[in-house]
């Protein structure tokens, strides 16, 4: 037993008898986490669950949407009336992608995309045309050998 005012260390038996009891989170913390969209980090048990995972994306449409265009299988059109052409397939995949993105935005999930690269023709052509005009326009030659002190003032008075 400890005396007042003295700090005593616990014995081995006392330390061995200590246990952590994990309790449920308070309601206000649960509410904050749900508002923020917090997801618990993956635990070891979650890695061995067979319920969900990458297997739920096994359908062909999502596979095609995730593939790069050059990695997709070759499209062969045997009957033009019933088969999809490559252009029609790309249009449908783009529409599905857009639909999924709209669905994610509606759910409140934000996705970030790489910015689209600009083409070099935007303002450079205009600048180059102006430079050519300046080069082609003859500049008046200034005679540097002559010294004139009052010419500027006389021109302003006229």
From TrEMBL:
Residues 17-135 form the DUF4604 domain. Keywords: Coiled coil. Residues 79-106 form a coiled coil. The keyword Coiled coil applies. Residues 106-158 are annotated as: Disordered. This is DUF4604 domain-containing protein.
């Amino acid at each position: 037993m400890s005396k007042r005012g003295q700090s005593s260390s616990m014995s081995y038996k006392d330390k061995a008898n200590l246990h952590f009891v994990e309790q449920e989170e308070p309601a206000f913390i649960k509410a904050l986490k749900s508002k923020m969209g917090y997801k618990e980090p993956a635990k070891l048990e979650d890695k061995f669950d067979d319920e969900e995972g990458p297997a739920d994306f096994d359908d062909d449409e999502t596979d095609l949407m995730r593939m790069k265009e050059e990695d997709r299988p070759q499209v062969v059109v045997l009957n033009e009336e019933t088969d999809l052409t490559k252009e029609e397939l790309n249009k449908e995949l783009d529409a599905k992608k857009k639909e999924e993105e709209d669905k994610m935005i509606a759910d409140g999930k934000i996705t970030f995309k790489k910015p689209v690269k600009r083409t070099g023709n935007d303002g450079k052509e205009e600048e180059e045309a102006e430079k050519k005009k300046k080069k082609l326009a003859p500049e008046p030659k200034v005679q540097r050998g002559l010294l004139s002190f009052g010419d500027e003032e006389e021109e302003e008075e006229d």
